[in-house]
Design a protein that fits this description.
It is built from 2 helices and 14 strands, in the order αβαβββββββββββββ. The chain is mainly beta and 298 residues long. It is elongated. 10% of the residues lie in helices and 55% in strands. The chain has a domain of 70 residues. It has an 8-stranded antiparallel beta barrel. Strands 4-5-8-9 form a 4-stranded antiparallel β-sheet. A hairpin with a 4-residue loop joins strand 2 and strand 3.
């Protein structure tokens, strides 16, 4: 419901801006840059092209800076919160973009694309470890930890309202929808290394007085309860660099705030067999920086 209300507000704001455009410029703009609604014959006259729709089609590519966060259960030590509650990563994206201009100031931009939103976590925390004989927890170990969370790859669709407050500078705002690639399984692969003390080791199982020789423990496991569909809001700014009468380069920077979690809460059983929530409020957003190449058909 909140998505519908946001979209309605955007439409009202856009209609107001469009009305102001007609009042302030009853004869239309006279610019003749690439993709403008004015006449491109070179005489600067736009009276005969008032209300002319422009259309551009292009491709776009770039990188996304991904930001992950989650809330861990109450009582989690602070050093573990610092390690496991947040992460970041870099992933690529690509898209096919269309720009439909209703005037020099107002238009819409649908886009279809693919993007990778993987991330990593890293930190150091304390953990009890067995003594030299493999029994007891009389020693506190310092653990260096890192992991990679992969498989967060999505087909994307967006539809933004485009406002051009000054020549060639664009502000875009609209919904974005992500559909997870069924062929990419979200997986976490982690490594924990005992930094100290020297007499603390990882054990595959508690030995009978025999010490394991490994200081490092690694694992790979599938991330449960991931969402196949996510919805969010994309806000971007872009600038059109005219190459000639038909072609333009369009660098863009935008932030995608996703309303839908990348995965639902993580639970585990307590000693009584009851489910307890160990991780909740998961968030995965991205900041995109890219460049597009557009061709204007009129």
């Amino acid at each position: 419901m909140k998505y519908v209300l946001c979209w309605c507000c955007l439409c009202i704001i856009t209609s107001t801006l469009y009305a102001q455009e007609d009042v302030l410029r009853p004869n239309g703009r006279t610019t003749s840059s690439v993709g403008s609604a004015a006449d491109k014959t070179g005489d600067g006259s736009s009276s005969s092209n008032k209300g002319k729709t422009t259309f551009a089609l292009g491709i776009e590519g770039g990188i996304g800076f991904n930001f992950f966060s989650q809330t861990l259960m109450a009582g989690t030590p602070q050093d573990q919160i610092n390690t496991f509650s947040q992460g970041n990563g870099i992933g690529g994206f690509g898209a096919i973009v269309a720009d439909i201009g209703f005037s020099d100031m107002i238009g819409i931009q649908p886009r279809i694309g693919y993007q990778v939103m993987n991330f990593s976590r890293k930190g150091t925390y304390k953990l009890d470890c067995p003594d030299q004989s493999g029994f007891g927890t009389d020693t506190v170990a310092t653990i260096d930890y890192s992991d990679d969370n992969t498989g967060f790859e999505y087909y994307t669709f967006g539809l933004s309202i485009r406002v051009t407050p000054v020549k060639n500078f664009m502000v875009l705002l609209g919904p974005t929808f992500h559909f997870r690639n069924a062929g990419s399984t979200p997986t976490v692969s982690g490594t924990a290394t005992i930094a100290s003390p020297d007499h603390c080791w990882f054990y595959d199982q508690i030995p009978d007085g025999i010490r394991d020789s490994s200081k490092t423990s690694s694992f790979t496991q599938q991330i449960d309860n991931t969402n196949n569909f996510r919805a969010g809001l994309d806000i971007s700014v872009a600038y059109k660099i005219d190459l000639n009468k038909s072609w333009a380069l369009v660098p863009r920077a935008g932030f995608q705030y996703m309303f839908t979690k990348p995965a639902e809460n993580q639970t585990q059983k307590d000693f009584l067999g009851n489910d307890i929530t160990v991780a909740s409020d998961r968030v995965l957003n991205t900041l995109q920086v890219g460049i597009g190449l557009w061709y204007y058909f009129n």
